[in-house]
Fold this protein.
Amino acid sequence: EAGVTQSPTHLIKTRGQQATLRCSPISGHTSVYWYQQALGLGLQFLLWYDEGEERNRGNFPPRFSGRQFPNYSSELNVNALELEDSALYLCASRGPNNEQFFGPGTRLTVL
Amino acid sequence: GNSVTQMEGPVTLSEEAFLTINCTYTATGYPSLFWYVQYPGEGLQLLLKATKADDKGSNKGFEATYRKETTSFHLEKGSVQVSDSAVYFCALSVTGGFKTIFGAGTRLFVKA
């Protein structure tokens, strides 16, 4: 069974640009979660998508947005990038016992 | 509200030492409890889980027992290896809830 995949692995942008990150959940999983993990810190919940709809978002500004496609893959968009957006962005899909299966992450660097 | 508190790191141990990482929780309802591990440069992996009181989760020599009376889910391993060096996250999810609540993470260093 293929795990959660994310692309790209690394992304380098400059301040003010936009970044697009992609995630494919485990086959059969309909819920996708996005987290931000800044260097040395814990996970911050960003967004939850289920069945194509945004169900909940964490305490992040509106320039963090995304969507979920009919095949349950998801995209995270970050507009007007700021230096402090540099972080590892993790995507996870939810299993039957509410366990989360994580992808390897996208390392975003904003210069 | 729901929350998870785990011991601050870093924890530094010698190879073959006994490991305990403390985790306590506050939850409404009946949570499932999890330990995740994050190796350097990687995403999180589910290490073990327990879905009801007195359940013991185990994997790769790690164990944790769901203690409802003390609201705890401490992670233990009898003999750590250098390859166990990682960050460990305790987490909970409430039945019917959408969200997994993660602790702040505990970094473990194991020296040869």
Q: What stands out?
A: The interface with chain B takes residues 4, 6, 31, 33, 41-43, 45, 48, 50, 55-56, 90, 92, 97-105 of chain A (CB under 8 Å). Residues 11 and 108 of chain A are 5 Å apart (CA to CA).
